[in-house]
Amino acid sequence: MVGALAQADNLSVLLVITGMGGVGKTVLAVQAGHLMEDRFPDGQLYVALRGHDPGSALTSVEALGQLLRSLGVRHDAIPDGIDEMARLYRSRMAGRRMLVLLDDASSVDQVTPLLPGGNGSAAVITSRHFLSTLPGSRIVRLSTFSTSESLRLLSRVAGELRVNSEEAAAQTLSELTGGLPLALRLIGARMIARPNWPLQHFVDQLQDEHRRLDELGLGHSGVRATFASSLNELLISPRVADREAAVAFDLLSLVEGPEISADLVSRLLDVELRTAEGRLERLVDMHLLDSVSPQRYRMHDLLRAFADERLSTSERGAERRSAIERGLRYYLAAAWQAHHITYPSSPRQPSEELDLTGLPAFGNQVDALSWLDREYDSIVGLYKLASVLPGLAPRFGPSLALGLFGYLEIRSHYLRMRDIFDLALASGRPSDDLVTWGWLEHDRAVPDVEQGHLELARERLLRSLDHFEAAHHVPGIARCCSTLSHVCERLDQLDEAIEWGEHGLKLAHEAGDLDVLGTNHLALGVLYNRVGRTVEAAAAFKASFDLAEAAGNVRSLARRHRLVATSYLAAGSRDQGIEHLNVAIRLYNDLDDPSGLALAYLFLSRAEVDGRNYQQAERTAQEGLRLAKLHDDTYCQGWLLVNLAAIQDATARPTAARQARLQAIAIFEADGMTAVANGLRKGQAVTENAVGGR
């Protein structure tokens, strides 16, 4: 920016500094002026245009009057018409080298007559508008501060020693203010006024979203007032589209994910997508929203808090509830559309009628999973808002959880699975719908199994079985038997496990449920392998493969080959295990499934460790770790780090092994797998079959 102003020696320079309210446009412009004083020996002019307040914004005539008086023109010598004033202004500026700062402009029309013209002078304009049609201008768009920049600002305002002594709290303050310079300066000022308060106390005050804006200034210079002045421009605009954009702004507070999709907003507003996109783009023009990609947007956290305040009044309760319902109907239908792609043989069914109009087009499983990756936080956030409104939790919770099951299982998001199913189970009672509650209990057991809480999983599965039996739902009973067989096998209760597996196999035959039939064959094959009935195991495995191939379910086939591989590896048949892992890897590659590949590489790396091929084992584990990070598969990351630690121990690299193990412990603790984390911390061996059932 300073470099651009330096070019004013040979030409007229026009800079527009734009950004959201409170981002520091005026401060930057003033600082640049001070730095460039020697470049403009004839002085600097400043006019506060007050453009963010349409009721008191200066007209071009009023601003020209100020400029002319600053240039020494007597009041009675200033002409009446704007054209005459502009000519007199340019004639007075001719031959001078001056910097003109036009602060807080509202429009191109407002500032055009105020530009100095001619070479040697420069104009710096600050505005909450882009002013992109201003001829010859260079636009500098300011963004909020990074964490390091925020800490530097806090240190300058409140003192470096104080900030450094509580760096973690200072970083949290940066996060809670979203790096907005105005908010950081206000917090810094409060820190100066309260020198004996620990920074953590300021953090605690800001943690409450309902009072966060109160803590960031209550007067006209506070964050709330700054945002309100921007929005007010839309609210009092004579253009209907502007006023509708202001309504859209308030409803954006309902979207709690990192990004906002135009598709969702069209449902919240109950308008066509094109209309919703137009309103969102108007908010972008006003710096009340950021555009991150076509039809994808991001809202600053403090702006979201401001919008939430406006929407959460009692007068707007019905409007807010209706928007939440529309958004959830959209998300529910989209989740089930994705579920039918990610889990085509699923016996689960939604209990809420689906609105299938205007849903995203999923060309394949990758599309469905990627869409859910982007939208998941918003889906859960919207449901949490609904869960405190009468009648909405039982209406949407169970169906939403079941619709998300396939996605969560494929992505190995077991902590998320636990949380969403807990919310669903808390929304009603089994008597509401025995079959739905049977599936909720069954699927809620899955994260218990994966986190090693096997007895808890068994209790849930027995409750699920009771619900299915009371409803005479044979597919559910058969599935419960299959899962109970797996849990009992993990508990080393092999006789009971075989009983459950064989009973489930019989029921699956009777129900004609080929998917459950294949799952039961697989479970029995694993059990037969463990008790030495290898011929029966091989036959059961083949039957399971044949059923998946006949159904065209490539993902299920890949998973079955991986599980068969782990069974053979556990039995000491390393070559057979690697053979099936290679088949699984090929299938996962065909599916473009990084989570499946990561898990297959985990077991392949273990097999290579068993063969003492440590160099290859490490390469395999590192590749698995890279893939697991693509979609935040923390479950798989943890186990791969455990495997890397074992490899590094075996190759005399204790420091690297310790670091990998500490990373794994942190992941397992965050995912609720405390028993595994404690075992690693104590240096105990982790059971090899802990992830064998996935």
Molecular structure report:
- The chain is mainly α and 694 residues long.
- The chain contains 32 helices and eight strands.
- The chain has helices spanning 2-6, 25-35, 60-70, 82-93, 108-111, 147-158, 160-165, 167-176, 181-193, 199-207, 223-235, 240-251, 262-269, 273-285, 301-311, 317-342, 365-387, 392-410, 414-425, 434-450, 454-470, 474-490, 494-511, 514-530, 534-551, 554-570, 574-591, 594-610, 614-630, 634-650, 654-670, 674-681, and strands at residues 13-18, 44-48, 99-105, 122-127, 138-141, 260-261, 290-293, 296-298.
- The chain has a five-stranded parallel β-sheet with strand order 2-3-4-1-5, sandwiched between helices. It has a three-stranded antiparallel β-sheet with strand order 6-8-7.
- It is elongated, with a radius of gyration of 32 Å.
- The protein starts with a helix and ends in a 13-residue tail after the last helix.
- Mean pLDDT is 91; it is low at 685-694.
Task: Name the beta content range.
Answer: 5-15%
Number of helices: 32
Provide the residue-averaged pLDDT: 91
Please compute the radius of gyration using only Cα atoms: 32 Å
Structural class: mainly alpha
Largest sheet, in brief, is: 5 strands, parallel
Shape: elongated
Record field, number of beta strands = 8
Q: Strand arrangement, largest sheet?
A: 2-3-4-1-5
- Terminal CA distance: 56 Å
User: Fraction of residues in helices?
Assistant: 55-70%
Poorly predicted runs of 5 or more residues: 685-694
Domain NB-ARC: 4-160
InterPro entries: NB-ARC, P-loop_NTPase, TPR-like_helical_dom_sf
Protein name: NB-ARC domain-containing protein
Pfam families: NB-ARC
